Amino acid sequence: MSTKLTIGLFGFGVVGQGLNDIIRTKDLNLEIKKIAIKNPEKKRSLPEELFTTDASVILNDPEINTIVELINDADAAYSIVKAALKSGKNVVSANKKMVATHLEEFLHIQEQYGTSLLYEGAVCGSIPIIRNLEEYYDNELLYSIRGIFNGSSNYILSKTFTENLDYATALKQAQDLGFAETDPILDVGGFDAKYKLVIAASHAYGVLPNPDDVFNIGIQNLSSKDIQYAKEKNYKIKLVPTALEFGERQVVLYVLPKMIKADDFLFNVENEYNGVIVQAAFADQQFFFGKGAGGHPTGSAVLSDITALRYEYKYEYKKYRSNKGFILSNDYQLNVYLRYTDESILSKLKLSEVTERFYSPDFSYVIGKVALSELFANADLLDNKHTFIAEINTLATPTI
Ligand SMILES: NC(=O)C1=CN([C@@H]2O[C@H](COP(=O)(O)OP(=O)(O)OC[C@H]3O[C@@H](n4cnc5c(N)ncnc54)[C@H](OP(=O)(O)O)[C@@H]3O)[C@@H](O)[C@H]2O)C=CC1
Ligand SMILES: N[C@@H](CC=O)C(=O)O
Q1: 7 DSSP 8-state letter
Q2: ipTM
Q3: Structural domains in the chain?
Q4: CA 20 to 30 Å from 74, out of 38, 117, 240, 392?
């Protein structure tokens, strides 16, 4: 325990306060010198003189060597993190949208300024997946990474599926518990899971996709009919981000609801818990499980990053630097369940190899194959309450 870490903390909400609670339980030779917040009128649990609304008070303080960024504004976070890294301060962040959107630029800034940006808390809360991908699997050939990466949507699915709670009540609970993003469409629409997937894929495959180029559909259009279908067939519906190698060094990334059976590790991942399944060539299947949201679980991952800075830990982005030449592709076939009302969607999506169909006045669905590129091209057709799409039994057998 050598270098003293003098911290400038941005954000004192769910995660910021969770981190502070944890730090106070231990003697860690670190000090939170100043905390930047947005609203000076809010009542705080710590002395008033610790707080500021002026970012430059922290960024220009030469004693502060570590910035911990835990705010709910990705654009402001980007400016703060960039300025901090360029001024020689190391940064820990839990902001997945900000990291995923600017990862390539941050990679170069870290290299140029010799500073470190760590973000374990940004991906699956308390689960140490980034450091494992970076260090443990650095020489492994990874077939796929998939899982449950969003606590709020999983909480809603658990409550609607097992407790028959209505969607709006379950969402409100996830918000009240501090799991949901400020704009919950990020959670239920699969955006938050996508940002996390993009970050994980950069460490797993060395790809740095623009999140806008990754397809995501969430659970916002889930209806009681879909739940009834799933229950009758012994499925649970989970929101599953997937990164998968296929064909000739191609990688596909997408976020879709998925019908899963009891033999899948994700079947019993409930509430705000997350799960990550890594399928590797030699290690085979491994499963990580833990709380994916909440102040203390996320605060514990943030603290682990802070203390890693003591020994000057940096991500090396080994897979990116070894340039394995993976190409991102949406030219990938998925097997899907599609609930619809307007029959024309089937031809527009070029749905093929139909194995099951059902029509009734108030519920129609089909099961068949569709290319991810077609889903992307027709995303507007899928984004309404009359349509729900979920992947069903498709993980392709990997090829060595
Ligand atoms: N909640 C969770 O379970 C998890 C959250 N995250 C991520 O962690 C980050 C923080 O989330 P969370 O704690 O839930 O958010 P909250 O909404 O609970 O808190 C946000 C904090 O940021 C402050 N803030 C907002 N804008 C600024 C600004 N420009 N300058 C300084 N402070 C600002 C707010 O100030 P004020 O108090 O004055 O309003 C507040 O203290 C987000 O990126 C989120 O995605 C990651 C993993 C889990
Ligand atoms: N809103 C997120 C918070 C953690 O990343 C979630 O619900 O998972």
Answers
A1: E
A2: 0.99
A3: 5-118 (3.40.50.720), 138-291+323-392 (3.30.360.10)
A4: 240
